[in-house]
TrEMBL record, chain A:
A biological process from GO: transcription by RNA polymerase II
Stated name of the protein: DNA-directed RNA polymerases II, IV and V subunit 3
UniProt keyword Nucleus, yes or no: yes
NCBIfam families: PRK00783.1
CDD domains assigned: RNAP_II_RPB3
Gene name per UniProt: LOC110791126
Cellular compartments annotated: Nucleus
Organism: Spinacia oleracea (Spinach)
Signal sequence segment: none
One Pfam family named in its UniProt record: RNA_pol_L
Keywords: Acetylation, DNA-directed RNA polymerase, Nucleus, Transcription
UniProt lineage: Eukaryota, Viridiplantae, Streptophyta, Embryophyta, Tracheophyta
Automatic annotation (TrEMBL), chain B:
Key words, A-Z: DNA-directed RNA polymerase, Nucleus, Transcription
Keyword Electron transport: no
One GO BP: transcription by RNA polymerase II
Alphabetized HAMAP family for the sequence: RNApol_arch_Rpo11 (MF_00261)
Species of provenance: Spinacia oleracea (Spinach)
Protein name: DNA-directed RNA polymerases II, IV and V subunit 11
Primary gene name: LOC110795392
């Protein structure tokens, strides 16, 4: 008994796309899907992060656990994380979490010998696997002074101080600990639809129009210098603050403008930590959400005689 | 240290079913599904998808307690359908929607990179 399908066919349009940032429009779906994607991107797309640190020598000013915590928060390139195993269900190492299928080893050795303070950064973390390395933004053309870009500072060493350690990075998700979250921020907003009542607007003097345009805390409206008409310059700058509507009412011109959120149209911004590139983050989120849905399917054997519907329920004395 | 393991929040314990369902004793075609180790992410999309089905008279979900890592989904349908049928159909539809979204995004990435 196959029921009718009530599937939606969402549409997507990219506005901006860089490795660490993406802005796109999502249409023809509802807020539950938009929010599910946002939640999955933040908390359930897997990445790799330092999870175990063995410190051999630490004569720096920071204590061992402080350094271990800082190492954990360094984003590591995690393109491979989707295919990796979680240490807790890795057969190869009995959940030990130290084998090649579920972990990556890092080494760090630094000693300050000169009088100059030595910065120990993420670039001093040497990986055993070239696909998993600390995220490096210095190749990005946007940064002008690439010469002194030395990665993320872990600790500063004075003359004679030393740091020597071994770190194990493992796969994890943001739900477990925020260090595994690949997303810096993910937001979405409803696309606003702004309708100006032109007849009512023309009943305003130029001074009143200016006053009304100024009442919006963000620059949504402006006055065309040629025609002196109020025009919408940036509908997305509107923050649903209702200030322009209140202003119109205070001026005795209620209904001057009507603003509706389009409930099937969303504007997303995705900022990545660099662990997973922004476009891949969305693709991984879709994949993770599919896996989650697959996991909540009813197992075949539990779909019992229920297909008889009402009759089946009656037969059981329902 | 008696802190529970962090992964208890999202790993289904051994011997526990991911999804179990219980038919309502008083109303025909009504049932409650208990989904272990899931939250609003799944609960809300399932509920909204079930609302699209005209045979579903009621669909709702709740997270009973923030420290009990499970959700309850309650479905009541007309006699033309059944809670399990509506539940399976909604998962199939969501799965197809995500397939559609994935291919739409891949096509858009290809278009975007060739344009700029």
């Amino acid at each position: 008994m196959e029921g009718a399908s009530y599937q939606r066919f969402p549409e997507i349009k990219i506005r901006e796309m860089r490795d660490d940032f993406m802005k796109f429009e999502l249409r023809k779906t509802d807020s539950s899907m938009a929010n599910a994607l946002r939640r999955v991107m933040i908390a359930e797309v897997p990445t790799v992060a330092v999870d175990l640190v063995e410190i051999e020598v630490n004569s720096s000013v920071l204590n061992d656990e402080f350094i271990a915590h800082r190492l954990g928060l360094i984003p590591l390139t995690s393109e491979r994380a989707m295919a990796m195993r979680f240490s807790r269900d890795c057969d190869a190492c009995d959940g030990d979490g130290q084998c090649e299928y579920c972990s990556v080893e890092f080494h760090l050795r630094a000693k300050c010998i000169g009088d100059q303070t030595l910065d120990v950064t993420s670039k001093d973390l040497l990986s055993s696997d070239h696909t998993v390395t600390p995220v490096d933004f210095s190749e990005a053309p946007a940064t002008e002074d690439a010469t002194d870009n030395r990665g993320i500072i872990i600790v500063k060493l004075r003359k004679g101080q030393e740091l020597k350690l071994r770190a194990i990075a493992r796969k994890g998700i943001g739900k477990d600990h925020a260090k595994w979250s690949p997303a810096a921020t993910v937001t979405f907003m409803y696309e606003p639809e702004i309708l100006i009542n032109d007849d009512l607007m023309e009943s305003l003097s130029l001074e009143q129009k200016k006053d009304w345009v100024e009442s919006s805390p963000t620059k949504v409206f402006d006055i065309d210098p040629n025609t002196q008409q109020v025009v919408v310059v940036d509908p997305e700058a509107y923050t649903y603050d209702d200030e322009v509507i209140k202003k119109a009412e205070a001026m005795g011109k209620s209904g001057l403008v009507e603003i509706y959120p389009k409930e099937d149209s969303f504007i997303f911004t995705v900022e990545s930590t660099g662990a997973v590139k922004a476009p891949l983050l969305l693709l991984n989120a879709i994949e993770v959400l599919k896996q989650k849905l697959d996991a909540v399917r009813l197992p075949e054997d539990s779909v019992d005689a229920d297909d008889f519907g009402e009759l089946g329920a009656h037969m059981r004395g329902g | 240290m008696n802190a529970p393991d962090r992964y208890e929040r999202f790993v289904v314990p051994e011997g526990v079913k991911k999804v179990s369902y219980e038919r309502d004793t008083k109303i025909i075609n009504a049932a409650s599904f208990t989904i272990e180790r899931e939250d609003h992410t799944i609960g809300n999309i399932l509920r909204m998808q079930l609302h699209r089905d005209p045979n579903v008279l009621f669909a709702g979900y709740k997270l009973p307690h923030p420290l009990q890592y499970k959700i309850l989904v309650r479905i009541h349908t007309t006699s033309q359908s059944s809670p399990t049928q509506a539940y399976n159909q909604s998962i199939n539809d969501l799965d197809k929607e995500l397939d559609c979204l994935k291919s739409a995004f891949e096509a858009e990435v290809a278009r975007f990179t060739s344009d700029y």
